[in-house]
Amino acid sequence: MSKNSLIYFLLLVLLQFFLIEIDCQEISQRYFHTTTLIDNKLYILGGRYTPDDTINTIGREFFYLDFSSAFSTKSLSWNSVKNFIPQHDGATTAVGGVQNDTIFLYGGITNYERMSTVYTYNPANNSWMIPALDGNDGSGVNRKAFLTGIADNGKMYLWGGTEVVTRYYVNDMLILDTIKLTWSSGSLLNAPYPRNEYGATLLPNHKIIYMGGNNGQNLAIGLDEVYIYDTINDNWVTQETSGNIPSRRFGFSVNLALDGERIIIFGGNVPSNDATHVLDLTNFNWYIPNINGSIPSSRSYHKADVINEYLVITFGFGYNRVNESDVLLLDISNNDQYVWTDYYVVSDSTSPSPSPSPSPSPSPSSINDKKFRNLKSIGIIGATVIGSMILIIGTYYLHKWNKNRRTRNAVHPPSAKLDNQSGQKVVLTMVNDNNGKNDQVSNKTEQ
Q1: C-alpha triplet 370, 371, 374: angle, nearest 5°
Q2: Which UniProt keywords apply (predicted)?
Q3: 113 pLDDT more than 90
Q4: Cα gap 188→160, rounded to integer Å
Q5: What is residue 390's predicted lDDT score, i.e. its pLDDT?
Q6: What CATH number does domain 23-363 carry, 3.40.50.1820, 3.40.50.10490, 3.30.420.10, 2.120.10.80?
Q7: What ranges make up the beta strands (E) of 32-91?
Q8: Strands (E), 332-437
């Protein structure tokens, strides 16, 4: 194969590789991962694998699920992203930065001693950085894991959790200003006692509600009272709850409902029929919501995010992916009737619907688009393989033809070809025309 042919072949193969649209990848089941929503993309990072929990396999994959178009949880399209973060689990993330478009990763457990306490990721340019932070840098015994980071007004609030070095359970409040890149501490007065694996979410009035968790002896904490931290006034209050109080739990999720007047909890170390509860924030009364659809397993150490009109639950511990998807969808658009569904449908409105609605079905166009993308990927990959084979075979015969041509030229040089019609030798000479340019003329002589 000539040098030029080899270069062209390699360039073509590389071009075909970059043009292939790979939108479906095999992702390992995991828990203690992080999730962050930016621009309709739910980014998932790290975590611990579940196939063999005895070896505590820690992951470093970074990928996202696109929520800008409809999909079925039975056919998920994961998209991998460049990642330089060491293997870890039990970290936490929040969105911050000057433009509120940057993912801040804090803490976590790792087997890499030089892992930084904080990393940032900018999706716009797909870049990771270790920011230079002023003040209490959160290093050493202050590096924590198994906590929930809450973002408000450019600050990331990091309460409680487990100190990575000492493994002590703590109840301090670290505050990372994601704009000024400085550390500070919040008040400890009236703060809840130490715990990790609790549930927390931000309320519309700039207050963070905390509940449940693990007390350090692997014992779950009750939800008969909740704890509220005021991010503006830097103080704590304890609020008793009433009604159908959920059982004690840790490793569960807490999310604000669409109306901002209630919160939804899911999962933890509890049975499936006890997994989902709602707390009315107007009177702090617990109740079990009306839910249609197939009830999933209660997962521990999962993540839950409200996206459009859905509570989106990703991965976790305690389910069999043979029977259930890695992603669960709870339609919470109607407070009177939640719906477990396999289909995510894009809606222009996130306000609750006025009446109960049945389990949504994907539109024919969205299903056809999905099938088309899958078929397109298969077709492109198949065409690439076939095209490469044809190119290799063609290149081989081109190489063979060039070799034969060189052999013929050695016997009959280009300057002494045979005229096919007369059997005479054609000698090529160069002459100058009146303008000084070279013209090629043929002078025939007898063979």
Answers
A1: 90
A2: Kelch repeat, Membrane, Repeat, Signal, Transmembrane, Transmembrane helix
A3: no
A4: 11
A5: 59
A6: 2.120.10.80
A7: 34-38, 41-45, 48-49, 62-66, 71-72, 78-80
A8: 338-341, 343-344, 416-418, 425-432
Q: Facing residues of 225 across strands? A: 240
Supply the Cα-derived Rg of the chain in whole angstroms.
32
In 3D space, the residue among 51, 52, 120, 53 whose CA is nearest the CA of residue 85 turns out to be 120
Secondary structure of residue 425 in the 3-state scheme: strand
Where in the chain are the domains? 23-363
Tens of pLDDT, residues 384-396: 545 556 555 655 5
Tokens describing residue 88: 């870890």
Residue holding tokens 């997994």? 275
**pTM score:** 0.74
Please give the pLDDT value at position 274. 96
Summarize the confidence of residues 296-309 as an average pLDDT.
97
Distance of CA 48 to CAs 64, 313, 316, Å? 17, 16, 9
Residue 437 pLDDT class (50, 70, 90 cuts): very low
Rounded distance, CA 398 to CA 407, Å?
14
Q: Residue 415 pLDDT more than 60?
A: no
Calculate the CA 172 to chain-centre distance: 30
Look-up of token digits 């906590």: 147
Token pair listed for 226? 């909740």
Say which residue the tokens 């999706």 belong to: 123
Q: Which stretches of 241-309 are assigned E, i.e. beta strand? A: 242-243, 253-256, 262-266, 277-280, 285-287, 291-292, 303-307
Closest CA to 305 of 41, 24, 60, 81: 41
At 54, is the secondary structure helix, strand, or coil?
Answer: helix
First to last CA, the chain: 36
How far, in Å, CA of 301 to CA of 315, rounded? 8
- pLDDT for the residue 14: 43
> Is 84 or 418 the better-scoring residue by pLDDT?
84
Q: How large is the greatest C-alpha to C-alpha distance in the chain, in angstroms?
A: 116
Q: Determine the Cα–Cα distance for residues 320 and 163; give it in Å rounded to an integer.
A: 31
Of the candidates 73, 69, 66, 79, the one whose C-alpha atom is nearest the C-alpha of residue 39 is 66
Q: Distance (Å, rounded) from C-alpha 271 to C-alpha 43? A: 28
